[in-house]
Amino acid sequence: MLMWLRMAPALHLIFLLIIHRVSAAGWGVNYSPSYICALKNSTMTISCTFTYPTTGYQIMKVFWNKDEVKHGVELADLSEDPEYSQRLQYLGDEQHNCTVRLSHVTKKDEHQYYFRFITDVSGGMWTGTPGVRLSVTDLQLESPERVTEGDSVRLTCNSSCKLTDTPTFIWYRNSHTLTNIGDELNIRSVNRTEAGHYSCGVQGQTYISPAVYLNVRYAPDTPVISINRSAVIMEGDSVTLNCSSNSNPPANFSWFKGNTSVGSRRIFRISKISSDDSGEYKCRARNVHGEKYSDPVTLDVQYPPRNISVSMNRSAVIKEGDSVTLNCSSDSNPPALNFSWFKGETFVGSGRIFNISKISSDDSGEYKCRATNEHGEKYSDPVTLDVQYPPRNVSVSITDSGQLWFDSLSLKCISDSNPPALNFSWFKENQSSAVGSGQSFSAVQSGRFYCEAHNPHGAQRSDAVTVTVHQHAVRNISITATAVPILIIIIIVIIVLLIIKKQRSAKSEGLTMMQNDLYSDVPQKVQAHDNPVCDPGLADEAPNETVNPRISAECRDAEEIQYATVQYHKNTPKKKEEEEEQRQCDNTPVQQPDQDHRQENVETVEESVIYSTLK
User: Fold this and answer.
1) Among the four residues 42, 74, 132, 325, which has the most C-beta atoms within 10 Å?
2) Can you tell which superkingdom this protein's organism belongs to (predicted)?
């Protein structure tokens, strides 16, 4: 019964609330609105009014409560809650206005909120139920995952509940405000420039939705090639080519020299470039939406002259009088513009082409050219100009055998020709047929002789020379009239030597008596031969034997010829000894045979010797 009495006021109040909701008999609380959807981090205001009997009641306390949380036996005052004390602001009074403001709302603030007031009359208190329901929402941007350039795109700014206050949406791209207003953003034909991070918010609120990236995909733009070198590229340098192209997704790159693939990365590097690397390069960018090629770039690798060569306008034989042109070619970059020509080490001309209009034998020799550009110079290998011509300056020379007496005269045909003359013919004047061939010819007859030299380019004859030859069994030939003075001197020297020899023989062996016996008693013994056999030492070796005087005379002549060798010594002691010996021999008496015998011997000699003259 007691328990019932205690619960009676409470039951009575509940009954009144059920019937009058938040007001009864002048007691009540009015909320506007009863449901609020607030944006996260925004400020929420709950409009509220309350009523009570004014007669006999005085308001003692007003406060807000959430979820009817009690503090002891009384509902808790929300303003005393640490989580709300700094954010909750009571805007009403203690008469009829109970409006309240809550700032920086979060998801934690989603509760049922009540207003309660207490009067000075016992049991005169009131709680406005069922209160106000608060929901807190954030913003979520809805966007297609990926779009292709040219597509239509719709972006939507969504919330988990419909905001109580009619919001004005604001759109952002990469933190920059767009002009579009509304919870939807429509792009008719999207392009790559509209790709970026999109977000939305509500005007007047600081909260902005999480950004969403709009991924606009497109085919590669035309690639562009950049080179790490802007100056001249020299052979041996390191060169790097870089291919860049805008595309989404990123493109794969390929490199081409001409139409040949040379690489497959964005960067193409040549560590030691050579002239073979010169040419046009281009790159290709490709992705799933298409491909594009760059404009070509040219690598111009420069280097000094090399492979210098000389070409000639004639590949056959060069003949005297021909026109000969030499052309100098060079591999260089930039092309060589300075060419110099040398014969041996002598500078002979400049220019790529060297021309000799009427070549002569004096132009024969080794030629080379020098090519020069701004990076260096180089010489070609020498080429030989072999100027050929027919025989010329043909002449006949007389070859001396080195002996005083000889039985033939050797003639030699001398010629200047290229190639050297190998075919020689000898002619005697007034005779149509040749009398000999070969470069040398032995003249055994008198007459005027000339030679004719031949090579593949022609022939030329020499002037005639006169040769006089007298033949005999002994086959001695005396030299030309120009040699007569020398011959006379030689004969005088021979006679002097013979006299000296005879004087020596008479003094040492008593030659005088032997000669008398020899010329008086010698029987006539002569061998039948054109050339009698003589022994120069016969008189000495067999003084008692019978000897033919004619043979003896001839032997003496042969003996005289045998000793017809003259040696000349300048300023030697031997010469002084010979002069001394000569003086002694001049003082020694020599016994000669009788006059008749000598005359006979002289005539015999004269019959066997013919004196010839060569003119």
Assistant:
1) 132
2) Eukaryota
**Other CB atoms within 10 Å distance of the CB of residue 478:** 19
Nearest one of 607, 576, 593, 615 to 520, comparing CA atoms? 593
Q: How many residues does the chain have?
A: 615
Residue 295's alpha-carbon distances to 224, 373, 486, in angstroms, are 7, 31, 99
Residue 525 three-state SS? coil
Residue type, 24: A
**Rounded CA separation 271/274 (Å):** 10
| Of 62 and 503, more confident | 62
Judged by average pLDDT, the poorest of 156-160, 341-345, 350-354, 475-479 is: 475-479
Backbone angles phi, psi at 114, to 5 degrees: -130, 150
pLDDT band at 111 (very low <50, low <70, confident <90, very high): very high
Distances in Å between the alpha carbon of 268 and those of 264, 277, 413, 455, 510? Answer: 8, 12, 76, 67, 121
Residue 489: how many CA atoms within 13 Å on its side-chain side? 5
- Cβ atoms 290, 220 nearer than 8 A: yes
Give the number of other CB atoms < 10 A from CB of residue 109.
19
Contact (CB, 8 A) for 573 and 428: no
